[in-house]
Specification:
This protein has about 325 residues and is α/β, with parallel strands linked by helices. The chain is about 35% helix and about 20% strand. The strands form 2 sheets. The chain has a 9-stranded mixed beta sheet with strand order 3-4-2-5-1-6-7-8-13, with helices on both faces. It has a 4-stranded parallel beta sheet with strand order 10-9-11-12, sandwiched between helices. Helix 4 packs across helix 11. It is globular. The two termini are about 40 Å apart.
């Protein structure tokens, strides 16, 4: 699905027409949150977001796992494997096909053991069997099946909550207040715009800790791309964020190509990207997520071979403060 542009600007006719559906959707989703969750013998840290689409959950989950590992703990990721064919529970092998498990689980599996499961309770049991001392959920804030001692909400500072309306009228998964009711802390990634400030203000009124962070590109990858003329392509929730990351690193692309979030590239699209790049003497560059979706498909092997990637990582500005919240909410020594 490609996000409608009207989600990210002041409500207009399209948003108003969709608002009744959003009201119904939001009420149903909010009612689900009142169900009691299954309590586990180990703490669950849930990294979620308020809106549909990307806010930086996966880099945040990875950063949290590394903090836990630094404290000598064994985190295990729990993910539903969005856009993957398999339902699980299963342990994600680093070399698995993205078509089977999705792209995000493959990124997570590079850092810590990763369990894919559509059924969160069954997945949690598999994580316990895998020796989890703490479970880190990538997404699942709005899923009530597990009790979450720490629910960390991630907010894209630039896009915020868009027009502030509930899907399909806007990007919110359900009403802002209902979601903040189940949150314990807020992490804002990137400088906050006017679209993010209402969330930050609402979180502070509730006494929630508010942290800030930045997504930074890998320095070695930047050095390898410097001086090259680039054709950048991305099939993520916000391709402009990727293109801006390139530009901010001094790697402004000559051309860009947008695709829907979690896009499954076709052989025709792959051939067109290769041809367009060759015609203008450009180097293809994409995100790690997009590159992982090219793996294991012979029809896309040529595009994978021709494409560079720009890995990114999350830097949290107040690591000590976040560590203190983790310890207080989970009871772990961090």
């Amino acid at each position: 699905m490609r996000e409608p542009d009207f989600w990210w600007r002041a409500p207009g006719l399209a948003a108003r027409l969709a608002s009744p559906l959003g009201t119904v959707y939001g009420r149903i989703a909010a009612a689900r949150l009142r169900r009691p969750g299954h309590t586990l013998p180990v703490p669950v840290v849930c990294v979620g977001n308020l809106t549909l689409g990307g806010a930086g959950k996966t880099p945040t989950a990875i950063a949290i796992a590394r903090l836990l590992q630094g404290a000598g703990l064994r985190p295990v990721f729990l993910t539903r494997g969005y856009k993957g064919r398999l339902a699980g529970p299963l342990t994600v092998a680093p070399g698995a096909a993205a078509a089977d498990v999705g792209d995000e689980p493959l990124l997570l599996a590079r850092t810590a053991p990763t369990i894919l499961a559509r059924n969160r309770v069954a997945g949690a049991q598999a994580a316990l069997a895998a020796g989890a001392r703490v479970i880190v959920m990538d997404d699942g804030l709005q899923n009530p099946s597990l009790a979450k001692p720490l629910a960390l909400v991630v907010l894209d500072g630039r896009r915020g909550i868009g027009n502030g309306l509930v899907f399909p009228a806007g990007p919110l998964r359900l009403g802002l207040e209902a979601q903040l009711d189940i949150a314990h802390a807020l992490l804002v990634i990137g400088p906050p715009s006017d679209l993010a400030l209402p969330v930050i203000d609402a979180a502070r009124r509730r006494g929630l800790p508010v942290f800030s962070g930045r997504v930074l590109p890998d320095t070695a990858a930047v050095a390898a791309l410097r001086g090259k003329r680039l054709l950048a392509y991305a099939g993520i929730a916000d391709p402009e964020k990727f293109f801006a990351t390139l530009a901010n690193a001094g790697l402004a692309p000559v051309r860009t190509a947008h695709f829907p979030d979690h896009h499954a590239f076709t052989e025709t699209e792959a051939a067109r990207l290769i041809t367009d790049a060759a015609a203008d003497g450009l180097t293809l560059v994409t995100t790690e997520k997009d590159f992982l979706r090219l793996q294991g498909d012979p029809a896309l092997a040529a595009l994978a071979a021709a494409s560079a990637t720009l890995p990114v990582g999350l830097v949290i500005d107040d690591t000590a403060g976040l560590r203190a919240v983790l310890a207080a909410r989970t009871g772990l020594r961090i």
